[in-house]
User: What shape does this take?
Amino acid sequence: MIRAEEIYDAATDDGAFDRLASTLAEAIGARSAAFHWGRSPADADEVSYSGYFSEEQMDVYDRDFAFDDVWGGALQGRSVNHIWNFADLVGDDEYEASRIYNEWIRPMGDDTFRCLGGTIRHGSTTGYIGFHRGRTQRPFSKRDVGIAQQCVAHIGRVMHIRRQLDRATHRGRMLHATLDLVGHATLILSMDGRLLHCNGQADIMLRRQDALMMRQQRIVARDLASDAALQAALRAAAAPEGTRSAAVMLRREDGPGYIVTVAALMIAGTRRIVLIATDPTTMDGSLVGRIRSLYGLTRAEVEVVLALCAGKAPEELARERGVALNTVRTQMKNIYSKMDCSRQSELVARISLLPRLNVAEI
Assistant: This one.
């Protein structure tokens, strides 16, 4: 008999999960075991199989034989969470003539001929389990079926737990990827200023230590005057009534400073401080393509737009590009027409509404 805790170890321990099929097979005296769950036998989220089968053999089964498994087909329309002896459902002659036996079992030099198993369902998670013996081994008995049946409820809960954990992990990865896509350093702090999480941009900024850095797990500014303003903003955000956002300029020795926004937000039911730092010198590689697709501008016109957004006057732009001032003014007229605006300030306002992304130009 297998202890229930041995099954539940597989809920969170990947190693125990990989061994679970072998552990179950040994418990009922089967030569091998395999089970998986998903929307269908061929659409499995996870698979555990005893070492009797190789990974390559299981891949072939999933790809070419899952829908042609006579034992799996015999489960259609039958009760779930019930272990069946397939000797009662599929005759020896039918199995011996089946494609799975002749094109998968026999070519690998195997003689798997006896099986018991069933469909396991817990909540929204459905799984399929099978235990096997060879042709020359004794048939499965009612006692074997009873031992396997006692494991069904536990296996169903393990499947459900692992799927829920997988979904949570997937959601976490998507959130991390989304934060990394944003072209700003984003840091989430506890209310006492300890760093809890940061995206890739923030990690780069902290490792650079040119303006923002870590000290005893807390975020500080390198420049003393900037740090005084930053800590004041953090204290204001941490106050019980602190809900308004604040902005701080962090000085750097070289180049323009970081623009830092500090705000207190509710995240998963808990108040956190969110700090967003923008490096004005960082370029958004996707901006050219997004402006072109949004307003139908040429690449040259986008270059003019970006120069105007950087505060350059038409005369300065004409000198840099080596063209006549009238050429630049003609381009500006075309740009204003396409963007439905009449002044440089309107143009800058339109472009500033586009989110800043951390992706390269495609």
Observations:
- DSSP finds 14 helices and twelve strands in the chain.
- The longest strand covers residues 112-122.
- The CA atoms of residues 318 and 324 lie 6 Å apart.
